[in-house]
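Researcher: Here's a chain I'd like modeled. Treat it as a single chain, no partners, no ligands.
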Amino acid sequence: MTLAGSPSHSVIEWGWAGRALEQVSGDMHAVVEREDGALVALLDGLGHGPEAAAAVSAAVPVIEAHAGSSVADLVQRCHDAMRKTRGAVMSVAWFDAYGASMVWTGVGNVDSLLIRAEQQDSSHPQAIAARGGVVGYRLPPLRVERHAVARGDTLVMATDGIQSSFGQGIMLQFSAQEIAELILARYAKGTDDAHIVVARYLGAPP
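Model: Modeled as a single isolated chain. Structure tokens:
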């Protein structure tokens, strides 16, 4: 699920791919593009099926409505929104349009990798560590990280329906959408919902 505004300059190029184990997926993303930046979030409802989908469906509208808030505030709002559900794990990142930076936080096992455009060996991307817990049930003290980003740096988020080795050999010459589709085709486990979001930083507005 996505919500895109109409900024005069896109801060990111992004794409996604996903596969549901049952009729509905408990994995869901939200991407909100604004004049001052872009928000990217990926959520994985506990388990799979309708109850997992209900959990993330309670949180995504909150993310879309409050995309200008801090990433920590967004996670707290999602925690409040999912209290009556089975909860979810999630990662959320904000790309600043003017500060050449990405602010990120995460709870639980949504894997997030930041791959540098100038990195010669793309087989060793930078892993971003999340805190253990469940949003909507047991929210840990959040750790918010800020990373400087340059044009072409690429963030990849994946739920645990994707093998943890998915970061090996990501080819940045492909588009964000192509990268997401290739990861799904190669690394989906087939035993759980699977979902990937890829966001490439395009740089500050001219």
